């Protein structure tokens, strides 16, 4: 037992676990979680691929998040841990997290997360995406890989999310089951949940995942199309009736949200605004 404790303390020191740059508190806080921003070439980019960005692009992304955040809000970022191309190549097998982690790449990811925490930006890790393997439906089979990764990143993570657009690949019962898997494999986060699109196998309280304490919401429109303030209001109100404002982060609704959109969303007492 003492040998294991000594080894664990060595791991913590190696990856900066003894410093003060720990997970940002998000409980009882209002969050600002912007998804889109303009990259160095002037193109629309998202935060999902943060771990695959260059250091310069990561800095630009962090600056954008802090610029959008207003007084009284905690800045936060949601980004992917898989697939390897977007998630920073954390796993030795792109299709199977349980095959093991790439320790050198995980070390770089840990440093990126420490940097976010150091700047007061809460880390919301998202384990899967909707359009490439590995698939969130297989989370129970991947549990050992997530547990291994969690041993390195847990000090810096505020929330664990299952997937982007999770309901595209399963109903709320499947989402609940896989979120429960992550709660066991990656214990101790302040919140667990998923990202999903309103209207895709999600239309009310009865098909809202019960064990998701955080829901990052995408509206029914493509984010490249301006939904207009009236449509955004209608869908936000419907989502709030389905899940309760305290669980909701209106995350993905327009590439370039207007001041009017964000101001209205902030008045709705949601957990967070994108």
- Secondary-structure-based class equals alpha/beta
Compute the number of structural domains. 1
Shape verdict: globular
Radius of gyration: 18 Å
Oligomer classification = single chain
CATH-level-4 superfamily name: Glycosidases
Distance between the termini: 45 Å
Total number of strands: 10
User: Tell me about the biggest sheet?
Assistant: 8 strands, parallel, barrel
Helix content: 25-40%
Low-confidence runs: none
User: What name is given to the CATH topology?
Assistant: TIM Barrel
Q: What topology, given as strand order, has the largest sheet?
A: 1-4-5-6-7-8-9-10
Q: What would you say about this model in short?
A:
With 274 residues, the chain is α/β, with parallel strands linked by helices. The protein has helices spanning 2-14, 55-68, 84-87, 103-118, 143-153, 172-185, 228-243, 259-266; strands at 30-32, 36-38, 44-46, 73-80, 122-128, 159-163, 191-197, 214-218, 248-252, 272-273.
From the structure above, extract its key features:
35% helix; single chain; globular; TIM Barrel
Structural features, described:
35% of the residues lie in helices and 18% in strands. With 274 residues, the protein is an alpha/beta fold. The protein has a single domain, classed as Glycosidases (TIM Barrel). The strands form 2 sheets. The protein has an 8-stranded parallel barrel, surrounded by 5 helices. Strand 6, helix 6 (172-185) and strand 7 (191-197) form a beta-alpha-beta unit. Helix 5 (143-153) crosses helix 6 and helix 7 packs parallel to helix 8 (259-266). The longest helix has 16 residues, at 103-118. The protein is globular and about 45 Å long. The mean pLDDT is 94.
């Amino acid at each position: 037992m003492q040998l294991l404790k000594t080894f664990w303390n060595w791991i913590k020191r190696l990856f900066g676990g003894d410093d003060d740059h720990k997970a940002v508190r998000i409980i009882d806080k209002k969050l600002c979680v912007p998804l889109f921003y303009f990259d160095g070439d002037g193109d629309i980019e998202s935060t999902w691929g943060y771990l695959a960005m260059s250091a310069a692009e990561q800095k630009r992304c962090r600056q954008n998040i802090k610029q959008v955040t207003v007084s009284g809000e905690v800045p936060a970022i949601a980004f992917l841990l898989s697939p390897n191309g977007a998630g920073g190549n954390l796993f030795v097998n792109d299709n199977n997290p349980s095959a093991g982690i790439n320790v050198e790449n995980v070390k770089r990811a840990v440093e990126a997360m420490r940097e976010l925490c150091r700047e007061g930006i809460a880390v919301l890790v998202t384990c899967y995406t909707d359009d490439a393997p590995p698939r969130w439906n297989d989370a129970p089979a991947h549990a050992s890989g997530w547990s291994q990764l969690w041993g390195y990143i847990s000090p810096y993570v505020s929330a664990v999310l299952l997937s982007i657009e999770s309901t595209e690949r399963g109903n709320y019962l499947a989402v609940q089951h896989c979120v429960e898997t992550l709660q066991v494999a990656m214990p101790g986060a302040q919140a667990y949940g998923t990202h999903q699109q309103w209207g895709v196998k999600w239309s009310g309280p009865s098909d809202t995942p019960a064990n998701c304490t955080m829901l990052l919401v995408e509206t029914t429109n493509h984010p490249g199309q301006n939904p207009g303030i009236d449509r955004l209001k209608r869908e936000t109100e419907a989502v709030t009736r389905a899940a309760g404002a305290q669980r909701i982060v209106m995350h993905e609704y327009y590439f370039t949200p207007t001041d009017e959109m964000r101001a209205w969303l902030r008045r709705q007492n949601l957990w967070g605004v994108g």
